[in-house]
Amino acid sequence: MDMQIPLSLLLGSRIAKRMPSILIVDDDLTLLELLSVHLSNGGLQVSVAPDAAVALRSIIENPPDLIILDIGLPYLDGMEVLAALKSDPASKHIPVIVLTGHEDPSEYVQASNLGADGYLHKPVDREKLINEIFSRLARQAAKKIANPPPA
Fold this sequence. Notes:
Elements: H1 7-11, E1 21-25, H2 29-41, E2 45-49, H3 52-61, E3 66-70, H4 78-87, E4 96-100, H5 105-114, E5 118-121, H6 126-146
Parallel strand pairs: 1-2, 1-3, 3-4, 4-5
């Protein structure tokens, strides 16, 4: 079942002026394609990055509304990417949902301490992921309403 929840229903039609943008970062190209299709069908604008370098360049050039980040990336792992994102004033506000194939509780603690906004295990349930994404986007929108940028 395709689950498409218009963001305007979650956030109010005046707030949602465009489809939310999601960046998926994972070195598993099959998973990237699968998640991209599912999330696009769920009403999201999706871009993908197969490694940390492509992801960081993409975030600088076109910051997404939310990032789905695999922990097990080659060269620069997901924890290092998460630490870089959350320490940079330009990207620290972007919600990050961490994906992992490991069941290591210390990994969850580390990701939380670095500022991860969500933590899901692979294989990830599509509906659970979409619900998590919309929940994080709604929280982000609520923060923007409660703390508008100075005029």
